Amino acid sequence: MFKAEFQSFEERATPGKGAERLNALRKELARRGLDGFIVTTADQHQNEYVPACEERMAWLTGFTGSLGAVVVLGDKAALFVDGRYTLQARDQVDGKAFSIEHLVEHPPHEWIAEHLSRGAKLGFDSWRTTLDSAERLQKSVERAGGMLVAASDNPLDAIWRDRPAPPLTPVKLHDLKFAGEPAADKLKRIREALAKDKLDAVLLSDPASIAWTFNIRGHDVSHTPLPLSWAYVPREGTPTLFVDARKLSNKVRDTLAKLADIREPAALEDEVTKRANGRTVRLDQATAPKILAERIEAAGGKIDKGADPVMRMKAIKNAAEIDGARAAHLRDGAALVRFLAWFDHEAPQGNLTEIDAVAALETFRRETGKLKDISFPTISGAGPNGAIVHYRVTDRSNRRIAPGELFLLDSGAQYEDGTTDVTRTVAVDEPTSEMRTRFTQVLKGHIAIATAKFPQGTTGAQIDPFARRALWADGVDFDHGTGHGVGSYLSVHEGPARISKLGGAKLEAGMILSNEPGYYKTGAYGIRIENLELIVGLPAPSGGEKKLLGFEVLTLAPIDRRLIDPSLLTADEIDWVNAYHADVRRRLSPELDDATARWLKVATDPLPK
Q: How far is it, in rounded angstroms, from Cα 329 to Cα 553?
């Protein structure tokens, strides 16, 4: 019997308690003299996955997605989510207590400007609000004629009686054979970047940046190997690492002490304030809390707002990280093919559920002997559940996978040598003509990204339309980005680069991005095809004037041929599918047992031209 060890199927949403908890919050706000408050999914570091003690929005509303915000006023409250979560929010949240708004099309700052009463005091948590967010909030509150007030502590904590304790997991050293560069050399590069930008210091607020810089990993949040911490890196002098000493073994402490002074997180405000006078300090606009900017400026320092220099450094993988990514994807591909072969045999019998599929895939990955964790909760959507972009199966929502349906499986793994993320949509028995048409349109977009050649300096926003052209031509689209950056045994969603309408960062060789166009028919089925791709330099074309970049596919797994309509593909697109499948078969077959290798041979047979 298969079992999942790295994820739970417990229903965490509590829509029935939303109104009660909302009323309790309003009473607490009134006690503090506040007319409203903003609650987000964020912790102090703006992590995608947060410790249980930081899940304030989930506790208040029932919504368990990774991104969102709630604005609570005296007579109304609104939950803001993006296109990935609109269906999920409707299922998890009491619609009478909270209206559901689109995070992008009608963002919180616009809603506040429309609904906040003149003279009202709107509170916010300055430890969990970034510089950029605070500026937007200030402008919207001013437009409404109100006042923005930083709360001394988060008022939800006063009513959340059974709030879990903060995490306390060990910090571990990340082996140099996986990291590829000593921490001392990384710190030297950071100092050089500070000198180039004429900065005196940087305050690292993103634990992923700190984990990369000091070659450490942890387990303070789900699915991302992060030790929650802060770091102050001056251009000259010794860095300071703020981390709970109880997480450090003697070996880890001794190693880190050679690189930095070790302080408790509680000392962060005082230490940063002491060093601020007369210094220009870089704060990351996407992760640094507003309160630290205020403390630095009050102490006579100057804030330089921008991306921390580590973000770009860790996004460009070194040779060891690239070799690790290739090895991780070979191992992960073999596990996924074992699952697909098993699923292809079992699913048509009508006995499998979505949870069965999740548990089976995780088991095949654990059997590699290398799995550290999954990289995010597996999206296992049968039929209409596949149309929920970030669907999370629970004991309550668990659905039997029926013949004639599509099954969408989006999953990933954390290995010490690399992080994976892959989506495959498969047919259970015979698909309909419409399913094949939509799948093939999505495939055309996937191939367009995979085969793209673009000059250095190109952004993700510029190539995002490649993935949508075939869908647009038929009057349909998908409401999420085409791709995100991926870390090296770090976050499965990593900046600064992404392929989306909002992807303004330049694409550079060494970055790893996902390629995942999709199509979702509400109440019927969902389709997504996702590979991870490494950006590589390409040979200069004859007569060309600019250096070109392109993609090397890292993910190794067959694309369901039953869902492909070759008549909708060009000859070049058919050649791409056949070449990719030949590569999958060649590289994975030696890693498989004979029966699975025979299944893979059939699954990767060439498409007819």
A: 10
